[in-house]
Design brief:
Elements: H1 8-13, H2 30-50, H3 59-103, H4 108-179
Domain DUF4200: 117-179
Protein name: DUF4200 domain-containing protein
Region (Disordered): 1-21
Length: 180
């Protein structure tokens, strides 16, 4: 219905239909919709009157039923969002893995070369460790020999000192024997 003919002054102040959000749609009859809703509510009321006492719902049970249905819908919505997020992250991970493996195509001999290189590195490391241990053993042996040489040198010096003293005493005693 067009109300602009009923209120001529109002039509001058109201802009065209696309700019005004409060215009009446021409293809819908709102009065018919209102009448249908009233009839539906009357039918619902009459059906509820026919129900037995234990079948009827109280106000609080109606509210809680609405709340539980809303909660259930929200939970379902959250679960679907979580599932969608998990699926999205899974696809991203799979795509990343595929991209990484595409870049690293190994030829059959590459693994053998890798193993050979590792074997060579292990052998070199083993040889180095053996040489280090041999060097340490030889250094310990040299230190022992030096200690023995120093000890022998001190014994030799003591012996030389004792021999010199013996010779002096011998000279002294021979001089004494000649004088007497």
């Amino acid at each position: 219905r067009n109300f602009s003919s009923l209120w001529p002054r109002a039509s001058k102040n109201v802009p065209d239909h696309p700019a005004n959000p409060f215009h009446m749609s021409g293809d819908m009859d709102f009065f018919l919709l209102r009448e249908q809703e009233q009839n539906k509510s009357l039918l619902d009321r009459e059906q509820k009157k026919k129900l037995r006492v234990h079948e009827k719902m109280t106000y609080s049970s109606k509210v809680s039923a609405k709340n539980t249905s809303l909660r259930r819908e929200l939970q379902l919505e959250d679960e679907t969002e979580e599932q969608a997020e998990q699926l999205r992250s899974f696809h991203e991970q799979v795509a990343w893995k595929l991209a990484m493996t595409r870049e690293k195509k190994l030829e059959p001999n590459a693994i053998n070369r890798y193993e050979d290189r590792n074997r060579q590195m292990l052998l070199i490391q083993y040889a180095l460790d053996m040489k280090r241990s041999e060097i340490q053993r030889l250094e310990r042996l040299a230190a022992q020999e030096e200690a023995e040489l120093e000890r022998a040198e001190t014994f030799l010096e003591k012996d030389a000192a004792l021999f010199d003293e013996f010779l002096r005493e011998k000279d002294h005693s021979s001089v004494q024997a000649l004088r007497t």
